[in-house]
Write a structure and sequence with these properties.
The protein is mainly alpha-helical. Helix content is 83%, strand content 0%.
Amino acid sequence: MDLRYLRENTDVIWEKTLEHLSLSLTALAIALPLALVLGILATRVRWLTTPVVSLVGVLYTIPSFAFMAFLIPTFGIGRQPALIILVTYAQVFLVRNVVAGLQSVDVSTLEAARGLGMNEFQLFRRVWLPLASPVIVAGIRTAFLAIIAIATLTGYINAGGLGEVMFAGINRAYPSQVLAGVIAVTALALAMDLVMRVLEQFTPVARARRAAS
C-alpha cells in the first residue's frame, strides 16, 4: 500500500478533510429543514405521502455526473451546484425517515395529549416529534454518511474537499494520491458515523428507555 502522498502531504489532506466536512455539514443543515417540512406535509396530508416519497426516490436515481452537467450552465462550478446536488440526494433518506417516524407514533398517544389540552404546535413539539426522533435521527445519520460519500464526486466541479485530491490523483495517474483521498474519506465517514450513533443515545425515547431499565 503506497502511503507516500499521505505521509508527505498530511497538511493538505487535513485541510481538504475540513473542507469536505464543512461542505457536508452545510448540505445537511439545508436539507434537514426542507425534509422536515416535506415529511410533515406528507404525513398530515395523507394523499401526498406516496407522491412526495416517490419524488425524492426518483431524484436520487439521477446520475451524479448528469446532475452536474445539468447544473453547470446555470450555476457554474464550485460549491453552489455541489450543495444543490447534495441537498437533493439527501432528501430520499431524510424525508422517508421523517414520514416513517411520524407515522410510527401511536394515534391514541396523540389523542391523549389532545385530551390534556395541548394545541397542535404543543402536540408536535412535546409529543409527536420526540416520539418519532429515533427514526428521524437514524435517517439523519444515513443521510449524512451519504452526503460525505457523494461530496467526493463534487470534487470534479471544484467544490472543494477530498474529491479534489482524488480527481487530481486520477488526472496525474498517481495512485498514492487517490489512495490518500480514499483513506481520508473513509476515516471521516467512520468518525461521523460514531458521532451520530452517540447522539442517537440522547433522543428523548432513548433517554426514557435507559431510565426505565
